[in-house]
Amino acid sequence: KHGVLNRKTHADMDGKRTPRGRRGWKKFYAVLKGTILYLQKDEYKLDRDLSEVDLKNAIRIHHALATKAIDYSKRPNVLKLKTADWRVFLFQAPSEEEMHSWILRINLV
Ligand code: I3P
Hints:
Structural class: alpha+beta
Number of strands: 7
Low-confidence stretches: none
Radius of gyration: 13 Å
Shape: globular
Strand content: 35-45%
Bound molecules: D-MYO-inositol-1,4,5-triphosphate
Strand order of the largest sheet: 4-3-2-1-7-6-5
Distance between the termini: 12 Å
Number of helices: 2
Order of helices and strands: EEEHEEEEH
Helix content: 10-25%
């Protein structure tokens, strides 16, 4: 699955609140491949063309949990992703359908 997602980093490893300056929303082209959610700067890329930054932004979603972000109301269609190492991200999808589709696909991994 792939598509445009806006990301906000809410908590870093071990659940520590992400400090100010790194909490802004940022637009990515998201690609879910196996157990990895790649967050790419641009659309379609071959694996070998992923930049160092793309690789650094990739999230392992094995044992992660995606839910609708019911406690976040500033933007619509936002899902919350908690990873196995207790990081927390918010992702804004372009529509409600897309948000539900991402939640289903992430939780199937
Ligand atoms: C953050 C940025 C986010 C905002 C966040 C700010 O600043 O303005 O858009 O979240 O508020 O800290 P920075 O880019 O300097 O990290 P919202 O869009 O959800 O308001 P927060 O600290 O209350 O999460």
